[in-house]
Amino acid sequence: MGAIITYWVKEAPRGARQRRQDTTRATEAKNATPRYPTQKELTEEADEEAPQTFMTITDSSGRIVRRLTVPAARGIHRYVWNLRGSAPTTGGGGFGGGGGGGGNPDADAPFYPGSTGGGSFVQPGTYRIALSRRADGVVTALGEPQTLTVTADPGVTLTPAQRTAAADYHARVDKLQRAFTGALEQANALRTKTEAIQRALVDSPADVKMMDEARRLDRRVVAILRQLRGDETLRGLESGDPSSIQDRVNSAVQGARGLSGAPTGTQQRNYDIANEDLTAQINALRTLDAELRKFEQQLEAAGVPYTPGRIPGIFNF
What we know:
By secondary structure, this protein is an alpha+beta fold. It has helices at 16-29, 39-47, 160-202, 209-229, 245-257, 265-301; strands at residues 3-9, 52-58, 64-69, 75-81, 125-135, 138-150.
């Protein structure tokens, strides 16, 4: 399901290196010797941001619903928008691929390239589609924006109140998923730090009491991780692993992706529990992060070997 969008690109974007090569070929065609680029020019070419072509979709209020990176070669293109809004987390997506993994590896490639992944389906209404190109840090419009109308499935009858409830639930679930992903990434990063600190303390002249503090901080990180993604020590046991925040977030997300009306009582309950538990763990993460930063300053003062995320002090050698 989706909208097939046809567009024409007059000229493909060309970076600094391509432009230099064009000039070199033109010079050689005149039997002249081309100028060799300076070291500064070669460095600038290597550091140049690659040109990108965007398809930006906005709703009737002008809010950006989705920004897609689309093929930019010269000629006519057809691209499929899957009618989903922006994803709350990064990852997935690609030209017609199955960004999230899975799927049938023997399936035929899609006839047209198109967007994959994304968030929930957009609501019926009128949308504006605009093409633009970002090159050398400058965004230039390509052609005039066009309108596209998304209509509701005639087989599904929903009241305006039900559509509003669905849109509100989608927005809240997106925020929940984004917050959970950030919390889990941060907790994993803190665990990497605490493990490295414990190893570094063994090979340092620091007071052995610092090992106790490092161990205490590490156990707090582990406790947060188990709340977020479940207790790995209980998996496979007959008693089972209690539902984690991740389980409830995934349940809410999967339920929201295909939801067209108001959420069920079970979906709402899963969301409420996940939101409450996640808020508590995010607060715990913030407190732990602040304490760990102070402890890292003590490690630096004690001459403990460098650990990830710690900025070395400035000394006169």
